[in-house]
Design the sequence.
C-alpha cells in the first residue's frame, strides 16, 4: 500500500510494471493474484486441461480399463490413419455435419438478421421467438425430429410433401443412407440459428446509418449495400461467430447419437460418436483416446485457420 | 438498383416535396416485402414445433396414431400428462436438474469472476499464458474429457454422483465466463481502482465492494446462457450418471423412448412439454437480459 501513496499519478516505473503484468491495480499483489486465480485454475486444470493431457497419454496404450495397460507407441494412430475405414468415413461425415450447420447457422442467420433490419417494429419480439429452439434440450429435439422425419407413421415432412403433390419424394429420412446424414445435421442448425441471428443482428445494427443513407441516395441497390457496406462492417463479428459455430459444429454429438446412433451402417457416424462408442461400447480406451487427440487437433487447426484468415495484423484475438 | 427507380418513379412523379420525401424513406418496398416474407417463414419454422409439441401432448393417443400428425385436436385431454407422470419420475428429474444447474451456475459465476479479476484487474507475470490456457477450453470439444474423467472418477469413487456432472460442466464453462467478466472489467475506468486503492482499499475489499456489485449485468448474462446449456446437458449426465434416482431431465426424457416398448408418443410429448416449461418461462421472463447479453458478446 505504501507504494500507492508514493506515486499517485502513476510514475513511469509503476506504469511499466503494470504493463508487464497486465493488471490495472496499482502495485504488486502477488498473494491476492494467487488467491483469486487458484480456485478457478484448479477446477479448470482438473476437468479440462489435465484430461486432455491424459487422453494424449492414453493414446499410446492399448487398454480396456481392466487388464494391464500395454504401451504400443504410435500403433493406435497408425491404425487410425491407414487402416480404419470407419474413422475415415466418420471424419468426412463430421465435415459434412459442420458444413450443413455453418450454412444454416451463419448463412441462414445472416439472411434473417439482414431481413430483420428492414422491419420497422417487432424486432425485439422476433429475436426472442427465434431464440426459443435454443432452450430445448437435444433429447427433446431428437424426439421431435424423429416424428418430423418418420415415414411409418407418416411424419411431418412426408405429410407436407404429399400435400403439395411431391409424394414421390417422401421417404424414411433417417433410415435412407442418402438422406440420413443431412437429416441428423439439420436439427442442430435449426436449434441455434436464432442465436446467431441475434448476434449478427446486433452487429448489423451498429452499421452507421448515415453511410447507408448516403449510399442509397447515390442509387446503390440494397444488394450492393449488403455486400459492400454491411458485410465488411461485420468482419469482427464474423471472427467470433465463425469460431463459435465451427467449434460447436465439430463437437456435434447429441442429435446424431440419439436419432440414429451412427446408422444406418456407418452413414451418420461422426468422429465424436465413433469415439464415444469406441470408449464406452467397445471399451477400447487407448484407441478412443487417439480419436480424441485427433478431434482436439482438428479443432485447434480449424480455429487457427479462421483466425489467420479473418484477423488483421495487430488485432487482439476474440 | 432498378428496383429503387421503379419504386421512386411513379410515386415521385406527379407532385412535389411531400410524396418525394415519403419515397426517400429508409427501406425500398421490395427489400422490405422480401424481408417480411423471409422473417415470417423462419418464424413459422422456429415456433411451430412448440405449438405442435403442446397440441400433441393434449391429443388422445389413438387420434395421434391414426390421423394427421399436423392436425390440432378438437377435444384436448390431460390423460397423456397422467401417463407421463406414471411412466417416469418427472418431479425427481426436475429436482436433479435444478440442483445441478443451480450449483454449477453459482460456481461458474464466482470462479469466473475470481479468474477474471486475477487476470484483468490484479495482473501477474504469466497472465497472458494462463489466459491462453483458458482460451483453449473454448476451442476444445467436451467429448475429449469423457474417457479420462470416467477413469479418474472410478479411481476416486465419484462416479454416479452430482459432482461428477457438475465439475466438468463448470470446467468447460469457465473460459467463456472468465472471458465475459474480463471484457466487462475492461470497461471499468482505471481511475476507479486507483481512487479506491488510495483510500486504502485492498484487492479483496475492492473485489467484494466495487467490482462485484458493478458486474451484476454480466452475472445475469453468464447465468442465463449457462443455465440453458447445463439444464439441457446430455453427454456428461449420460456418461457419469448411472442410477435412476440421479437422472436429470434429458436422461429422463430419453428413457421415455425405451421404457415403453413401442413409444407412447403423446405421453412422451406431454413429458417434453412439462420439462421444457420451466426453462421456456424463465427465458420469456428474462428475455431482455438474454438478448442483451448475447448481443454484447460480440462487441469486439
Sequence:
Amino acid at each position: 500500500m505504501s507504494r500507492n501513496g508514493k506515486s499517485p499519478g502513476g510514475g513511469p516505473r509503476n506504469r511499466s510494471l503494470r504493463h508487464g503484468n497486465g493488471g490495472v491495480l496499482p502495485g504488486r499483489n502477488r498473494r491476492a493474484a494467487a488467491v483469486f486465480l487458484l480456485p478457478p485454475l484448479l477446477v479448470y486444470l482438473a476437468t479440462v486441461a489435465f484430461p486432455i493431457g491424459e487422453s494424449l497419454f492414453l493414446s499410446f496404450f492399448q487398454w480396456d480399463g481392466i487388464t494391464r495397460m500395454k504401451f504400443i507407441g504410435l500403433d493406435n494412430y497408425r491404425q487410425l490413419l491407414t487402416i480404419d475405414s470407419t474413422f475415415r468415413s466418420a471424419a468426412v461425415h463430421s465435415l459434412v455435419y459442420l458444413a450443413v450447420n455453418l450454412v444454416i447457422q451463419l448463412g441462414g442467420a445472416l439472411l434473417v438478421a439482414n431481413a430483420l433490419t428492414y422491419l420497422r417494429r417487432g424486432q425485439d419480439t422476433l429475436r426472442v421467438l427465434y431464440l426459443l429452439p435454443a432452450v430445448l434440450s437435444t433429447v427433446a429435439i431428437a424426439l421431435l425430429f424423429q416424428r418430423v422425419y418418420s415415414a411409418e407413421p407418416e411424419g411431418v415432412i412426408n405429410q407436407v410433401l404429399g400435400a403439395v403433390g411431391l409424394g414421390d419424394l417422401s421417404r424414411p429420412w433417417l433410415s435412407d443412407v442418402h438422406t440420413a446424414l443431412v437429416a441428423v445435421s439439420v436439427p442442430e442448425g435449426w436449434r441455434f440459428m436464432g442465436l446467431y441471428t441475434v448476434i449478427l443482428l446486433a452487429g448489423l445494427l451498429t452499421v452507421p446509418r448515415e453511410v447507408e443513407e448516403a449510399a442509397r441516395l447515390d442509387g446503390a441497390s440494397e444488394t450492393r449495400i449488403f455486400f459492400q457496406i454491411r458485410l465488411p462492417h461485420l468482419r469482427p463479428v464474423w471472427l467470433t461467430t465463425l469460431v463459435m459455430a465451427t467449434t460447436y459444429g465439430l463437437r456435434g454429438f447429441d442429435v446424431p447419437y440419439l436419432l440414429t446412433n451412427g446408422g444406418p451402417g456407418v452413414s451418420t457416424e461422426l468422429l465424436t460418436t465413433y469415439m464415444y462408442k469406441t470408449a464406452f461400447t467397445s471399451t477400447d480406451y487407448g484407441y478412443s483416446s487417439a480419436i480424441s487427440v485427433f478431434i482436439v487437433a482438428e479443432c485447434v487447426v480449424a480455429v487457427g485457420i479462421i483466425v489467420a484468415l479473418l484477423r488483421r495484423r495487430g488485432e487482439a484475438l476474440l | 438498383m432498378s428496383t429503387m427507380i421503379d419504386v421512386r418513379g411513379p410515386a415521385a412523379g406527379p407532385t412535389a416535396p411531400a410524396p418525394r420525401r415519403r419515397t426517400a424513406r429508409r427501406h425500398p418496398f421490395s427489400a422490405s416485402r422480401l424481408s417480411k416474407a423471409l422473417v415470417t417463414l423462419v418464424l413459422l419454422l422456429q415456433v411451430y414445433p412448440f405449438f405442435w409439441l403442446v397440441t400433441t401432448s393434449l391429443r388422445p393417443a389413438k387420434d395421434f396414431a391414426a390421423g394427421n400428425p399436423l392436425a390440432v385436436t378438437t377435444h384436448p385431454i390431460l390423460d397423456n400428462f397422467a401417463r407421463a407422470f406414471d411412466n417416469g419420475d418427472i418431479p425427481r428429474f426436475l429436482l436433479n436438474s435444478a440442483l445441478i444447474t443451480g450449483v454449477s451456475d453459482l460456481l461458474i459465476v464466482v470462479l469466473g469472476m475470481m479468474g477474471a479479476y486475477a487476470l484483468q484487474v490484479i495482473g501477474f507475470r504469466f497472465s497472458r499464458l494462463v489466459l491462453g490456457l483458458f482460451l483453449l477450453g473454448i476451442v476444445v470439444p467436451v467429448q475429449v474429457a469423457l474417457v479420462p474423467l470416467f477413469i479418474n472418477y472410478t479411481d476416486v469413487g465419484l462416479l454416479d454422483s452430482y459432482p461428477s456432472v457438475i465439475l466438468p460442466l463448470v470446467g468447460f464453462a469457465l473460459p467463456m465466463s472468465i472471458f465475459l467478466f474480463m471484457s466487462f472489467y475492461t470497461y471499468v475506468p482505471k481511475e476507479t481502482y486507483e481512487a479506491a486503492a488510495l483510500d486504502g482499499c485492498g484487492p479483496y475489499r475492492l473485489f467484494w465492494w466495487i467490482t462485484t456489485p458493478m458486474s451484476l449485468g454480466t452475472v445475469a448474462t453468464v447465468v442465463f446462457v449457462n443455465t440453458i446449456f447445463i439444464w439441457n446437458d446430455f453427454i456428461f449426465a449420460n456418461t457419469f450418471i448411472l442410477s435412476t434416482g440421479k437422472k436429470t431431465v434429458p436422461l429422463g426424457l430419453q428413457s421415455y423412448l425405451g421404457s415403453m416398448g413401442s413409444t407412447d408418443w403423446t405421453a412422451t410429448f406431454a413429458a417434453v412439454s412439462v420439462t421444457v416449461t420451466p426453462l421456456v418461462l424463465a427465458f420469456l421472463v428474462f428475455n431482455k437480459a438474454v438478448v442483451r447479453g448475447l448481443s454484447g458478446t460480440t462487441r469486439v
